[in-house]
Design a protein that fits this description.
- With 335 residues, the chain is an all-alpha fold.
- It has a domain at 1-80 and 295-335: Orthogonal Bundle (Topoisomerase I, Chain A, domain 4), CATH 1.10.132.50.
- It is 67% helix and 0% strand.
């Protein structure tokens, strides 16, 4: 079977899996539910039912994590390129490393380690990650972590700057994503990764502007590999937000900025942009559905599942607190 034929089979499997995703009618019911128990009861009528049975009485975060992990592992079992779901899971590996480092730094200053914050969604087993890092066996770690982890620890020992350690890890993660995409050799996958890097750079820029960074302070936090030049992005931080869309008018992402309400406070602007970015990345990957053998169908399904889980989590958090229903509705992705 050729690689193209193999993806034809994989896409057919993905089409069957799409029926498990929740539709708009279910999300309407979830939003209208009175409390957390009612939300879980509605989920019990969907593809989440088996997991609700096995996670009865547990925290809903573990339920959602299990559902997402199940999707990643199922796709990895039949896609021709295992690196594709691996690339999508990488964000959780780096999140685990950040949790590990923060816990180690906290322990060195009299605090406690928070292994409970580690997630099983990473591709590298949590137990191995903990033992390798605590024993300083960095050479066993994937994604170039063997070289970047000592730098992170060195930075913290010299300056106690955890923000700089996170910056180093983020640079490594997006560099690895770009490397995997380029080695796979699928143009649509590479374009999706570049769009994700551009989107992350813009999101970072918004946060840095909120905290008063200048161009020289912002530049180190921006990642290589996108379509938008890093120097241009760094220079934008000195400009009024309402001019940003014009400055990158050559990019499809400019539309996300132009559609954002500039009269809102920066916190709301960031939330609105993050929602639009998530939807933009889904639409970009979902364009592959018209190609029955495109590898980007894998990304589209995984990103759809990521957004579904994000939506359910927002609803559950709002029900367990006193969140405003309409505020949550505005933040839901692609519903």
């Amino acid at each position: 079977m050729s690689r193209k034929e193999a993806y034809g089979y994989a896409v057919a499997r993905i089409r069957a899996m799409e029926h498990r995703l929740l539709d708009a009618a279910v999300f309407t019911r979830l939003l209208e539910a009175e409390d957390t128990a009612s939300v879980l009861k509605i989920l019990g009528e969907t593809s989440y039912a088996p997991l609700l049975t096995s996670h009865s009485g547990g925290a809903f975060d573990k339920l959602l994590e299990a559902s997402l992990l199940e999707t990643y592992e199922e796709l990895a079992s039949f896609v021709p390129d295992r690196e594709l779901p691996l690339m999508m899971r990488m964000q959780y590996d780096f999140s685990n490393v950040k949790v590990m480092l923060k816990s180690i730094f906290a322990a060195r200053t009299g605090g406690k380690k928070r292994w409970d914050l580690l997630t099983s969604l990473g591709s590298y087993p949590v137990d191995s990650l903990v033992s390798n890092i605590e024993a300083e066996e960095y050479r066993l770690l994937p994604f170039g972590l063997a070289s970047v982890l000592p730098k992170c620890i060195g930075v913290w020992e010299q300056s106690r700057n955890t923000l700089e350690t996170e910056r180093l890890l983020d640079l490594q993660m997006f560099g690895e994503m770009r490397r995997i995409a380029e080695e796979l050799g699928y143009s649509e996958v590479t374009e999706w990764v570049k769009a994700r890097i551009d989107g992350e750079n813009l999101r970072t820029l918004l946060r840095l502007k909120r905290f008063g960074f200048d161009a020289s302070g912002a530049a180190p936090f921006l990642h290589d590999g996108g379509r938008i030049d890093k120097d241009l992005l760094a220079s934008m931080i000195a400009e009024p937000f309402e001019t940003w869309s014009r400055l990158i008018s050559f990019s499809d992402l400019s539309r996300l900025l132009s559609e954002t309400d500039v009269s809102a406070g920066f916190s709301q602007i960031i939330l609105d942009f993050e929602k639009k970015l998530d939807e933009f990345l889904l639409d970009l990957a979902a364009a592959s559905k018209y190609s029955p053998d495109s590898p980007c169908n894998v990304i589209a399904h995984l990103w759809s599942k990521e957004l579904e889980v994000k939506n359910i989590r927002m609803i559950l958090v709002s029900k367990s607190g006193s969140g405003d229903r309409e505020s949550v509705r505005r933040l839901l992705r692609h519903v």
